[in-house]
Amino acid sequence: MISRKNAAISKFIIHKVGNKFNDTKNAFSGKTVDFDEASYDLMLPFLLRPFGSVVQSYRFNHHANITLNEINSYCTQIFSDEDSFIDISKHMVTHLYEQSNSAQIKTGDVLIVMFEGIEFRDMTTNAIGIFKIESKVNFFQTYLENNSYDVLVQKGINSRKVDKGCLILNQSDGEGNIILSVDNNSYDTQYWTNHFLNIKYADDANNHTQQYIELCKEFSTEVLKTNYGAKEQNTFLAKTVDFFKENEIVNVERFKEDLFEDEKQIRQFEDYKKEYEGEQNVVLRNQFDVAEAVVNKEKKKFKTDIKLDTNIQIKLDIDAPDASTEYLERGYDDDKKMHFYKVFFNAEN
User: Fold this and answer.
1) What is this structure's pTM?
2) How far, in Å, are 74, 77, 342 from residue 82 at the CA level?
């Protein structure tokens, strides 16, 4: 995640990208935008706000040679020669246009931006931002005519969030330039992340933690809930979060020992892990550092409600892994021919 408190826009240009599939054309600007104070003060936080909560970072990718990655090459040119900004920004839009291979890909405004003063992990750097605005919203505009006010409807950019955006920092590590990316229209993620940017997650604690939590979420849904019920699923997720919170390093063997008492479930987890790695084309490490920020962010996404077909819901606390084991029992009533949950408590809150 970044801090934008000392950030500034040094160059800004707007182009329009068409859709090759629908034969709509690009439209290019010939010069950069000269902001007035009001629009600048609104634009800067609009563009950078989404990256304040981004935890994971990316690096450029290419199947043959990283220097052949188009956006990597274009950013390298701009960083070394800022006078090339306008020409290179047009090449970026053309490259984006070439990825529109279906009618589903939307046309829109493309904002190419040079930032200064971006703070990331105790370092300050400049960066290139690429943003695609796909969705316009209706708003009312009032105006004065013949001594009376009237109203008309216009379309404009929603200043609350960008549709797609990336930030390429002029800082690198052993894997290359550090990249942050957001995409609020996930219907065409491959188009933005894989085809246009061609980026992959960094090989760091954030990624290792994220991948393993994703594995545990999928396993809990496809194996535990299916075979043992929602209570077992939610208990497993709560224990997973607890394990990650209590350990700075995850050792997979210790993880299995702590979370499973049944040898059958251990074998099911091991089999599912192999299957998951094959389907996702990843290799999960047997030991890695825990990224606390990722754990906290993913924890908020866990759904721990047990929804019953009798219009009753039981909500479990993800931060209390032992509660469902101690105070919730599942059984079957032979007379009613129905499953039931028995809940123990001292007082109602």
Assistant:
1) 0.77
2) 11, 8, 67
Neighbour count for residue 203 (Cβ, 10 Å): 13
Three-class SS state of 316: coil
Q: What is the pLDDT of residue 190?
A: 83
| C-alpha span between 112 and 129 (Å, rounded) | 6
Round to whole Å and give the CA distance between 159 and 43. Answer: 8
Residue 148, phi then psi, degrees to nearest 5 = -135, 150
pLDDT at 25 over 80: yes
Confidence at residue 321, expressed as pLDDT on a 0 to 100 scale: 66
Contact 44, 9 (CB under 8 A): yes
**Would you state the structure tokens that stand for residue 172, as one six-digit string?**
């690198």
* Cα–Cα distance measured from residue 283 to residue 277, given in angstroms and rounded to the nearest whole number: 6
CA distance 55 to 320: 25
Whole-angstrom Cα distance, residue 11 to residue 16?
A: 17
- Per-residue model confidence as pLDDT tens digits over 165-218: 999 999 988 888 999 999 987 667 689 999 999 999 898 999 999 999 999 999
DSSP string of 160-200, one letter each residue? T--SEEEEEEEEEETTEEEEEEEES-GGGHIIIIIIII-EE
Report phi then psi at 138, rounded to 5: -80, 140
Give yes or no for a contact between 248 and 329, defined as CB atoms under 8 angstroms apart: no
Burial code (b: 16+ CB inside 10 Å, e: under 16) for 213-233 equals bebbbbbbeebbbeebebbbb
Are 285 and 249 a contacting pair, CB within 8 Å?
no
CB 197 within 8 Å of CB 62: no
Q: Provide the 3-class DSSP secondary structure of residue 274.
A: helix
Average pLDDT, the chain: 90
